[in-house]
Write a structure and sequence with these properties.
This protein is α/β, with parallel strands linked by helices. It has an eight-stranded parallel β-sheet. It has an eight-stranded parallel β-sheet with strand order 20-21-22-23-25-29-30-33. Helix 5 links the parallel strand 10 and strand 11. Helix 5 (145-158) packs parallel to helix 14, helix 13 (331-338) packs parallel to helix 14 and helix 20 runs parallel beside helix 22 (669-676). The longest helix is centred in the C-terminal third of the chain and has 21 residues, at 542-562.
Amino acid sequence: MIIERNTLPYIVFSEDPVLTGLQKITANQERIVFCVDEHGVLQGSLSDGDFRRWIVENPAEGLNVSCLAVANRAVRSASHTTSPADLAVLMPRNVSHLPLVDARGHLRAIAVDRADEMRIGRHHIGPGHPAFLIAEIGNNHNGSVDLAKRLVDLAQEAGADAVKFQLRDMKSLYRQSSGSSAGEDLGTQYTLDLLSRFSLDAADLFKVFDHCRDQGIDVLCTPWDIASAQSLVDYGLPALKIASADLTNHELLRNVADRGVPLIASTGMSREDEIRESAALLRSAGAAFALLHTQSTYPAPFKDVNLAYLDRLAEIGQCIVGYSGHERGYHVPIAAVARGARIIEKHFTVDTTMEGNDHTVSLLPEEFARMVTRIREVEESIGGKSPRTVSPGEMMNRINLAKSLVAARPIAKGQVIGSADVDVKSPGRGLQPNALPLLLGRTAPRDVAEGDFFYEGDLRDHAPKGRDFDFRRPWGLPVRYHDHETLIKDCSPDFLEFHFSYKDLEIDPDSVFTAPLDMGFTTHLPDLFAGDFLVDLASEDGAHWERSIAEVQRTIDITRSLTRWFKQEDEPIMVVTMGGFTKDRHIPAQERARKYARVAQALQRLDTDGVRIAAQTLPPYPWLMGGQQFHNLFLDPHDTAEFAAQTGTRLCLDVSHTKLAANFLGMPFSEAVEALAPHTIHLHMVDATGVDGEGVQVGEGEVDFASLAKQLDRLSPEAGFIPEIWQGHVNDGAAFWTALERLEAWY
């Protein structure tokens, strides 16, 4: 149980439109707000469930109706003076938020039946949220406001979520007036000397806090005494930090716990019974708090860190736990996140040789930035407990490396499949070998040549088939030379798109076709060439750039040579992945312009007469050569559109790639389409999930194809499309037929 005294995220005025209430519910991520009148008197509660029930009963009403008209006016409440222990008894079953009011009904606080999540400034901390990373500046400003502000800026650039300082009232804190150290031990004298020279008073710290606010980074501070706590709360800090040295200072703990701000308390220098006692005190006060596992030596020996104690600390505190590190390096905090730490605190400096014992255990800005990067990578890698699935990259390697069930001899349609009819061979394009018991004894639904793969469709009585589909824009099929006849035997697409492999470029088209086809065609540059070579028209390596230009030109020449085998008047489109990828990270946005210029320079070198080049929009994490890499160009819709406008380069809008890019960039997919579609002459229709789940079957991912159809009809009505489903060509194109069936409803 925690008492949330910052009620602003939970409040709407009763007369506010319900849309305002819904927006607030979304913003606070708590699924509830409370309606108050102009005097702050509680009127009712509004949850997302209340809204759903109301809209079902009032489907014709608009969103301008008042919050109170939708709210539950019989909301249960309790007195704001009720103890947390009594509130736990009062809290109704299945109710997680109980409003606390004064004698006149004014909303004063909210009891929240949860201790595994807290909010500090802009950040939610707890399960499902990124670790909260604090750059502990402390007194590393060495008494300089200017250096303190510089450290704030550097911490923000390094990726810190918050910075932390310390405030002491020297007169009230130390036993001798004016911080005198006469008669004290050597260590105390050293500490007092540093503090007397390097501490900033409240007025100077507030100047730094103002700078933090202007820079958009949250700021925390450690009060070492009650007077300092009062100053910090009066300023309006979003949270306070309790130093290890004060974990047993119950007077200070009670004082700050009663102030209604979240608390983070370090546990260094304390025995377990002391930790238990202080945690119980904070719980009894209804404080939202977290405990940090800490080894308070500077620097701390690795053998004393004991990250395994994080598990025990969580049990003791029944709260969020984190780690405050004083050891050398930044690898231990990364391990702490993997062990469940939701908060990480590390000291931060510009020079580890400066005077003061904190500097020696501090990270430099570039080290802190590396720690942030590695922590975020570890968080991505931790994942969850959902059933294991095969990632897109693994699927590529599974096809290349695994084995399949194949026909050991010709099998006629209607024949019962026996064990002598089936063999296990590579590659893994067909049914996996463990499907053999499901296949044996079935009647073959089709003729299967010796060496052909068995597919999922062979386990079903009915499989999707090709037919003549009806679309209001040109549609085509992605094909290879060897399978184009099979895929068009039951349908008449407007065009074929040849997805070349580098080996296909060595095939003479005259050996493939015997008569011109009554349809058009497009081509697609190979993704990979011999020698593990990937085309990169943005490459700054001269030899790589020249070969890239040569391979694109070779594919253009082959595309031109195909025109004699197709009856179409328009120049064929050739889809090109232009390059600009990196292997280990995304490049800074400011570096893209130089690479786009390199691509433009390469395009000027090409002879494109008779062929229309279309630059393919790209995903953030492409699966190239069986592993994840990083795309930088033709990723952001806005700079892609700018390049297209400036150079006259037309686009192939790959729906899957662009949806993944929009997810990665945090922008609405509709905004991306709005920027790209006016420059688009060709479409790849396919669904997507997350930031790297490409090639998903239409209707099984995150794309709203109905809304997309309206945008494309308005912005690029003439562009043709293909369904580009991952491995859609196998099983006689079954996945293509499924995609086209679904797309027909919208296009």
